[in-house]
Design goal:
- The protein has 578 residues and is an alpha/beta fold.
- It is globular and about 70 Å long.
- 53% of the residues are buried.
- Guanosine-5'-triphosphate is lined by residues 257, 259-265, 287-288, 311-312, 314-315, 320, 439, 487-488, 496, 500-501, 504.
- Sulfopyruvate (SPV) binds next to helix 7 and helix 8.
């Protein structure tokens, strides 16, 4: 590497604090070379070539998927590891019962012992990045030090990475410090540690997604939620989409669903045909993270801090998410998908072809389980999305009209309801639950409380977090209305009651009608609900389907409310119906 790329351990920046930190880390980790990333095409090309040469990236079929690569992670390193993720505050109470906690001195000692000498034989990459449009006052910067070139090329897609970010960091003088090493990829020697009081992250032993791309969950959610509370804003696990009606009015909606529960899909929604023909359009601003702050007009203004999508591959198809499928035809890094005989990426739910190799590179045999790992992902630039909104680059963000919470709930929770006011909306978000998914290691399909889809990502005590949310309800605030949705309700045979995907626009239309004061609602148990005919039926959508998805069963809700009143920390996993 050192022969290919310019290396300079101490002279990569004019910011003394940054130069000193890089030197200190180099002294600890003992890399063979230090490379300051500029984010250029040439640098990216060299890294890709290098990874192709060492086998860590496999080029895909250039005819069907130009510029696309496959990365196979270590089979024990395929998802976030919540049990190994810590928030290390001086006081344990600051991290809250919702986080694993370790005293900062102990955590630093533990991590520094792991980092000692860990980059021998490797190159240390210095990755300056900006979360948010580079000229946005809402954006925040960080520097990730990593020994993984896979992390570097992913960070280049997921963030504004390189020289412009470094220039902003040098002007501001402050930045989040993220130190990452693959280590030995040993699950026994793997920790993701956060030090919010020091704006520092230390991650060791994983090369995967949210464990290793430190700008994402570690910075933009765990540390940012901490900063947001101090500075009066919100850092949330939410997509941001714009909905343009036939009159040309655009409403922006932010929606929090837990991992692998539909954010990317909703953010890129393609309207049903009748809506398309009438002139409805959906614009994608973000698919995973939303930073919002009250503007002078009292509204919440939001940016997507990311520049790319690290999306779930399984289930993505021309039918479910045609925008995503188009977006990932070129210049995309695939992780842990299967391969067809002619080296096209493949996953369950894509189409009915049979792959040749599974995600581990073995000859595909259904006896080994799914061909693609259930948490297989694509990394792609946001601008490649056909529904990409140019407002994604707006330094001031977009105004949010509605906030939507939702989870994967096979029973009980109706298709949609509206909170009666902001405080009730905060309650609805705080009490939401969802079935666990393959995005984190552990058992899949257990219902757990996941307040605001932030259970794995809130960098401080949930009680303080709810209080922070409540504090936005001030005189003069023009807060969004809050809703709860459930696309995942099932019938007695286990089939989804609601077709989901593009059809979800029918629910969003009702939400916008409520925001605009155009739709009636009735007060049902959980909150305000559509009156008959409130959600638009159509040729492919019967009123009966809508009615069934909206049903509220009093007995189910009694059990739900009873479960909600348990402290979520001791929440039983099996007591509520899924
Ligand atoms: P993270 O990136 O982990 O935060 O996930 P996400 O919230 O962006 O989830 P994503 O949109 O990638 O969806 C995850 C899975 O849920 C995919 O397999 C989708 O096909 C499926 N899914 C998404 N939306 C719907 C829906 O409306 N109905 C049904 N039945 N499945 C859906
Ligand atoms: C999630 O798990 O919510 C993700 C994927 O968005 S990861 O980046 O791995 O956290
Ligand atoms: Mn996510």
């Amino acid at each position: 590497m050192s022969a290919v790329l310019k290396t300079e351990a101490s002279t990569g920046t004019s910011l003394a604090a940054l130069a000193a930190w890089v030197q200190e880390v180099a002294a600890l980790t003992q890399p063979d070379a230090v490379h300051w990333c500029d984010g250029s095409d040439a640098e990216n090309r060299k890294l890709l070539e290098m990874m192709q040469a060492d086998g860590s990236l496999i080029p895909l079929n250039p005819g069907t998927h130009p510029g696309c690569w496959l990365h196979r992670s270590h089979p024990d390193d395929v998802a976030r590891v919540e049990h190994l993720t810590f928030v290390c505050t001086r006081e344990a109470t600051a991290a809250g019962a919702n986080n694993h906690w370790m005293a900062p001195a102990e955590a630093h000692a533990k991590m520094d012992a792991l980092f000692a000498g860990c980059m021998r034989g490797r190159t240390l990459y210095v990755v300056p990045y900006c979360m948010g449009p580079i000229d946005s006052p809402l954006a925040r910067c960080g520097v990730e030090i990593t020994d993984s070139p896979y992390v570097v090329v992913n960070m280049r897609i997921m963030t504004r990475m390189g020289t412009p970010a470094l220039r902003r960091i040098e002007q501001e003088g402050t930045f989040v410090r993220g130190l990452h090493s693959l280590g030995e990829l040993d699950p026994e020697r793997r920790f993701i540690m956060h030090f919010p009081e020091e704006l520092t992250i230390k991650s060791y032993g994983s090369g995967y997604g949210g464990n290793a791309l430190l700008g994402k969950k570690c910075h933009a959610l765990r540390l940012a939620s901490w900063q947001a509370r101090e500075e009066g804003w919100l850092a949330e696990h939410m997509l941001i989409l714009g909905i343009e009606n036939p009159q040309g009015e655009v409403h922006y909606i932010a929606a929090a669903f837990p991992s692998a529960c539909g954010k990317t899909n909703l953010a890129m929604l393609v309207p049903p045909q009748a809506y398309r023909e009438a002139g409805w359009k959906v614009w994608t601003v973000g698919d995973d993270i939303c930073w919002m702050r009250p503007g002078p007009d009292g509204k919440l203004w939001a940016i997507n801090p990311e520049a790319g999508y690290f999306g779930v591959a399984p289930g993505t198809s021309a039918r479910s998410n045609p925008n995503a499928l188009t977006m990932i035809q070129r210049d995309t890094i695939y992780t842990n998908v299967a391969l067809t005989a002619d080296k096209q990426p493949w996953w369950e739910g894509l189409d009915d072809r049979v792959p040749a190799l599974d995600w581990r590179g073995r000859v595909y045999d259904p006896a080994n389980g799914p061909a693609a790992h259930p948490n297989a992902r694509f990394t792609v630039s946001a601008r490649q999305c056909p529904s990409w909104s140019p407002r994604s680059e707006d330094a001031g963000g977009v105004p949010i009209s509605a906030i939507v919470f939702g989870g994967r709930r096979a029973s009980t929770i109706p298709l949609v309801f509206e909170a009666r006011d902001w405080a009730h909306g905060v309650f609805v978000g705080a009490t939401m639950a969802s079935e666990t998914t393959a995005a984190a290691t552990g058992q899949v399909g257990l219902v757990r409380r996941d307040p605001m889809a932030m259970k794995p990502f809130c960098g401080y005590d949930f009680a303080e977090y709810f209080a922070h949310w409540l504090s936005f309800d001030t005189a003069g605030a023009q807060l969004p209305k809050i809703f709860h949705v459930n696309w995942f309700r099932k019938d007695a045979e286990g089939n989804f009651l609601w077709p989901g995907f593009g059809e979800n626009l029918r629910v969003l239309e009702w939400i916008i009608d409520r925001v605009e004061g155009r739709a009636e609602a009735r007060d049902a148990g959980p909150g305000l609900m559509p009156v008959e005919g409130g959600i638009r039926a159509g040729e492919d959508m019967s009123a009966a389907t809508i009615e069934r998805a909206l049903q509220v069963d009093a007995g189910d809700w009694e059990r739900e409310f009873a479960d909600q009143t348990l402290s979520w920390g001791q929440a039983r996993k099996t007591a509520v119906p899924a």
